Amino acid sequence: MQIQTLCRWSLVLILLCAGQALAGGDEPAPSPSPAEEVFRLEQLTVSEGRQGTAFHLSGAGTPTYTVYELVDPLRLVIDLAQAELAAELALPKTYDAGPVAKITGAPIAENPGAVRVQFFLA
In the chain, what is the straight-line distance between the N-terminal and C-terminal CA atoms, in Å? Predict the structure, then answer.
């Protein structure tokens, strides 16, 4: 009984996958030009408010990013896909007060690549 149910669900899954592949049509979806895809990180600003310190990353384009935390040393990491750092953005930056001691940024891949921005916590 369990094997029959498993086989039935496997067949349904295979048919769904095949249907999705066949329904795609013959024409590939148009892709944006490479110039439109690249996010250019141009500015990093710091503001102090009642709720604490805020760091603002801004640039040209729409960013695609992943945020995660790493330890030893403790830091917040933002990976920006298909991105580049503007030449006028001066990184690394160090801070004497607040929760962040240093901010670094560097490319992690090529053409157009990706950028990793790290906030090292004090």
Answer: 59
